[in-house]
Amino acid sequence: MNERIFLYDGDCPFCFRLGNYLKRNCLDTSIQFRSFREFQEQDLRKLHPSLGTEVAQGNVQLIDKGIRYPGFFAVRRLSHSLRGWRWFSLFLYLPFVPLLGVVVMSLLKSLRNPGH
Predict the structure, then answer these.
(1) Helix, strand or coil for residue 32?
(2) Which one-letter DSSP state was computed for residue 5?
(3) What Pfam families is this protein classified in (predicted)?
(4) Which of 80, 95, 102, 106 gives the lowest tally of CB atoms within 10 Å of its CB?
């Protein structure tokens, strides 16, 4: 499957703003930006076998030519195509940066969903 799609939670204000920011700044027009809530469970599984509503609720997701990139890894993969981020994206591949990125994404997720 050659589909390239960035999925976010359209009911989450933070995720919605992130998705819109990335869409506005993405130079690669082949990537779709959509709320996972537009899809039925079986449609999410068609995009990727390990993708479902519960997984999509936990993190933003990038499906790029059959490979699923969750959370920080989705943003890192997309950063190559973002206006103003191309050179900075190399920094995201340095040692320990992914660990820090996962922690930051988890912190942001907990701040947007207090009590969960």
Answers:
(1) strand
(2) E
(3) DCC1-like (PF04134)
(4) 95
